[in-house]
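Lecture 7, part 2: worked example. A protein chain together with magnesium ion.
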Amino acid sequence: MSQYVYFFGGGKADGNKDMKDILGGKGSGLAEMTNAGVPVPPGFTISTQACNAYYDSGGKLPAEVDQQTDAALAKLEALQGKKLGNAKDPLLVSVRSGSKFSMPGMMDTILNLGMNDQSVEGVKAKTGNGRFAKDSYRRFIQMYGNVVLGIDKDKFEHELTAIKKKYKAKTDVELGEKALDEVIARYKVVVEKNTHHPFPQDPREQLVGARDAVFESWMNPRAITYRKLNDIPHNLGTAVNVQTMVFGNMGDTSATGVGFTRNPSTGAKEFYGEFLQNAQGEDVVAGIRTPHPIADLEKVMPKAYRQLRDITTRLERHYKDVQDFEFTIQENTLYMLQTRNGKRTGLAAINIAVDMCEEGVLTKKEALLKVEPQALDQLLHPIFDPKARTSVPVAAKGLPASPGAATGAVVFTAEDAVAWAQKGKKVLLVRMETVPDDIHGMSVAQGILTATGGMTSHAAVVGRQMGKPSVVGCGALDINAKAKTMKVAGKVVREGDPVSIDGSTGEVMLAAVPTSASEVIQVVEGKLKPEKSVIYQKFEKLLGWADEVRRLGIRANADVPKDAKVAFGFGARGIGLCRTEHMFFGAERLPHVVKMILSAARGQRGLDLTRRLKEQLKEAKGHRAMEIRKEIAKVQKELGKYIKDYTTALKKLEPMQKADFAGLFKEMHGSPVTIRTLDPPLHEFLPKREELMVEIAILKTKSATKNKRAIETKEKLLRAVEELHEFNPMLGHRGCRLGITYPELTKMQARAIFEAALQVAKKGIPVKPEVMIPLVGHVEELKRQKAIVIEAAKEVLGKGSGVEYTVGTMIEVPRGAVTADEIAKEAEFFSFGTNDLTQMGFGLSRDDAGKFLLYYLEHGLLEKDPFITLDASGVGILVEIGVKKGRSVKPKLKIGVCGEHGGDPGSIRFFHKVGLDYVSCSPYRVPIARLAAAQAQLEQPVSD
Ligand code: PEP
Ligand code: MG
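Predicted complex, written out as structure tokens:
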């Protein structure tokens, strides 16, 4: 026979704290407390399995549930020496829901069950308090009528108001026994009218009705929505807790309250909470009377207070976590009604974990497991002043792409952002979507808000990398960048208007909400001394413990020295990805980049032809030699200009890149720096076709003759843009395909890397350059690019420079993953580019998925956004294959990941499990990755 009902009381319980699946959080807590000798009103829990059986059989329960309920009730009655519904001294119970995960207020509760026309007199006789008895009965009819019988609350309120009017009572408390008798009579009429049955007097019937109503409430729309929002599966079911009632409203020696063993907002070790004398739990929640701080309980009921402190301290030690508890004092006797691990802010989580470890309650390993890695984020970003935040309505919601609070005057272009910022204004950059060209505007903005794009859109990736609060894909924005306005929530927002975004929730507010700065960031940026910030010290202490445990190395994706410095400050030991293209957008570089692009195809062809002809010339004689010379001259005539433009542009760019790389090497103090050769399609560096066409048309209308030169230049640019147009740029001329077709480009970048390395090494700073070739799908691609890199290294470093380097590849094309054994023969390291691997493995465009992915997530087609958390059972298999095949050729092959997943705790667990050596993520996610990597090792130890 299955067990569906679990008893607790008399110092013993059938269940315990490890039975949350079956007993729910509340039921397992009550069982555990009972076993621990804590005063808990006795009762029993009907399991979640009964709830699931109820749904499986269309609202019926196995006969065993009724039998076991009857047996448990008889046991309870015997223990209490009272009977449910008894006319002299009745037992009263509460019936409450309680699922595995707390779902505050989502399901139903019924109090004072067992009240009827007889037992109400019994309560009156026993307590000598007629008012109390009648009030309890009317509350019961009201709750039962609403929750079990489905009668609108207002119908009861209506009657109560009428009686209050009659007796000129302002509050319920002013109603005396006689008035309450009238309320009860009226309530009974309401029930009869609405259900065509009298109010049930049989306590057994009441209990069955209440139990089934709680089961039903598991599937009410409110509960379903809550579960969806919080990733709680729908098939867990709720348990039902039937528990002896205790009353906090039996006069001034009674009270009820709630509390935390530590401050859940700051983590401070202080007894935190509130209580009300002569009140029931619902009065505390309803906000009709103002509760008192819990410290005051010591004055009014010192004995109960001391007992409460003692019990809750014990519970905290027992559960090894902050407890969120509910209690009732009935005539000076304390009862604990609930205890559970308290929810807390990121700040509190760190403080509590570190403090409890230092107090000897937790081991270091236990402390590490107490903090959600994501919670660390809250310490890094500015936050909205909590009080000010609640007074401002939310106008729209987008995807929370990069956490933190930002407020600023709205600007609609990157140029305006820069211009306003130069005038000392704080701006919020609003775009349909951002492009690499917007980088300068993004870098000066307080935050970034876009109307389209997903969690790996440009704005999201760069926002996170820069640590800028960003909300993306906010479809409710109707932006008119030209007019410099946007419509949202029926309002028109103009340039300069204040807007605030919360990158942790995706909320957009049309007002300036005050923010406060993060201390941790101030320390990392050198603006505050570590010893001045207690929270920084705790943060670093916890992460130091994480470093002792974790097996995965942590690197950062950083392109510029400033980001690298922050990453190092946060504990990154190495750069896993430097996207060299981000440096091409600086004002002094872009003209050379454009020149290089415009001349690359013809320039490279010219160089190749000339080189080949010159080779032939070495062998040729007489007439043949003359012919070759003529051909060389012809090539020079046709392509000479392009060759010159191409090589000159590259020459200009080389020292600039060298300076960037040198900065990175310096900031990393000898840790490896992985620099990737150029990756994006070249048209990203050029203006948009439509924009150019408009500009040309405007110039022509103004004056075609006066603007002749300008028109010609723009038309030339337009032709180039059209030539470079691709239907699928993400699968087009990008990645190593650029370096294959324009080898001079790879050569220039490789030279810049080695020149920088040499320069820094000469200053006595150790360097470890790693040159990474992107988008390799075939070993031959890597082989050819590697040859160019090695050649450049020979030229620059010569012999005996002492600079050691490696050449490796990204694995981000599915073919690259499945032929990783071939590729490993040429690669000295692998780095998984899981952004592209997801895009290509899943066939989901990074740039377009936003349009339908949200639907997939909302409708449960996908549990998680695969661009945020690695799709372990699909794309993850490609990663596993890549690792296995790669290491089948080179057992010690160093393998990391540099896609966005490198900073996601769930994905980090996966990378740990498949044996990667390191994860690389944006600088501001480094702390999260350190902690997540430690937790992964604690949960699933992997040896080296
Ligand atoms: C990737 O594809 O995962 C990656 C890191 O490269 P990018 O995002 O620059 O394409
Ligand atoms: Mg990529």
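The longest strand covers residues 333-341. The two ends are 48 Å apart (CA to CA). Keep this in mind for problem set question 3.
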